[in-house]
Amino acid sequence: METSLRETGLTQPQFAALTMLDAYPEHSSADLARIALLTPQTMSTIMQNLENAALIRRHPHQEHGRKRRIELTDAGRQVLVRAKRLVYALETDLAEGFSEEEQRTVRRWLVAAGGRSLEGGAAKP
């Protein structure tokens, strides 16, 4: 995925963060860190790099003093559209030659493996 995203200038974590912001507009960096299962410090670094690239904009939260709402800029939306096209093309290429049932099996396996990882270990026999 990193190779596919290279022409956009995004890293995979930046792509994930922009995708989350698109799905969950105006959430804070801490909110996005919880959703992505990252530390607030890691997400803060990602957000700072995206802000430096003018792909996001931060605004003070109206109800919470230190909390800042984050939104995509027009440039952020444009780069996200390009990045999604590249990632979807990669997914299509990777799925080529597999039947729908095989693709479903791989997706189920990946979801199960991700769930086990979040639970802190491999499945018991």
Automatic annotation (TrEMBL):
Family annotation (PROSITE patterns): HTH_MARR_2
Top-level taxon: Bacteria
Pfam families: MarR_2
Gene3D superfamilies reported for this sequence: Winged helix-like DNA-binding domain superfamily/Winged helix DNA-binding domain
Gene Ontology terms describing biological process: response to stress
GO molecular function ontology, one term from the record: DNA-binding transcription factor activity
Domain HTH marR-type per the UniProt entry, residue ranges: 1-115
Cited PANTHER family: HTH-TYPE TRANSCRIPTIONAL REPRESSOR YETL (PTHR33164:SF43), TRANSCRIPTIONAL REGULATOR, MARR FAMILY (PTHR33164)
Protein name as annotated: Transcriptional regulator, MarR family
Lineage: Bacteria, Pseudomonadati, Pseudomonadota, Alphaproteobacteria, Rhodobacterales
